[in-house]
Amino acid sequence: MEPISYLGSAALSGFIYDKLQQGATSTKEYLKGKLKDWIIDDATVHQLAIQIDDLGLDEDMSPRKIEKELNASPDILELLKTITPSQTTSITNHQENIYGNNVMINHNGKG
Quick check: 19 pLDDT over 80? Predict the structure, then answer.
């Protein structure tokens, strides 16, 4: 499995769904909080917030519907490609005879 190299629309749709359910007013400030573990500059957050607000999403939409709306916007998809994780996380599946399968998560980079 390849590591996630940029923020996908499925993850973003979950953030937007939560924002709509919580009634958060500022898309930009909400995204800044949610994307704190991603490398993204203020100008990109600002542009992404404008593009999302222009979609007219509402609290009655499911995360899947929100994802479809995000995927229908070439501008949003291009912005998402510029947002990368701020650290590398690798997951290793390791088998032991006594304890069965163990999953170890290693964080590398800034943290």
Answer: yes
Give the residue, 87 or 76, on which the prediction is more confident: 76
Q: How many domains does the chain have?
A: 1
- Any domain includes 104: no
> Got the DSSP string for 36-61?
TTEE--HHHHHHHHHHHHHTT--TTS
- Residue 50 counted as domain residue: yes
The CA distance from 19 to 11, in Å, is: 13
Report the C-alpha gap between 81 and 27 in whole angstroms: 19
- pLDDT at position 6 is 66
Give pTM, 2 decimals. Answer: 0.69
